[in-house]
User: Fold this.
Amino acid sequence: MTDNAAPAPPRPSNWNLPNALTMLRIVLVPFFIWFFLADAAAYGWWRWAAVVLFLVAIYTDKLDGDIARARGLITSFGKIADPIADKLLIGSALIMLSAVGELWWWVTILMLVREVGITALRFVVIRYGVMAASGGGKLKTVLQTVAIFLFLLPVTPAVPWLSVAALVVMLAALAVTVVTGIDYLIKAGQLRSAGRGAA
Assistant:
């Protein structure tokens, strides 16, 4: 009897453009920190350079995902490295803003605890199944990005309505961060219970 089953498609190599963009985002993080700290108080050209670098890094996040999906280049390395790169960028921006007194530390700490905690939780429950990113999680990332961008802008402190907008978006990002964190905890519990029940 002849086996007519089609051979499985080859796995994409880790050496591809989306993964290169992810690694580029990681490499950009220390330069972003350097540019930010070089001009944190003066709100001058180095601060603008930090803003541009942040935007470039954020764009690589969208670009690598689009290319990976369009060309079938999704890899295990990319699944791990991509969220790590995102958290390094967002986390470093939050820490820098708090370090220079532009953002309350408790906001940064809550966001970082949620990000690190949920990432660790994904690894804990991975034997029971994968916790996919939710719509709320994607909204959280968008709000965090917009809020950080507004806080980073050198002109924000001098424009009252922009300062208010930055604060409102940041608090909205914090609210969504906490709510989605709780939602992921519930999902992780359900996934673990279902996995144990099936065993």
About this structure: Residues 87 and 163 are 24 Å apart (CA to CA).
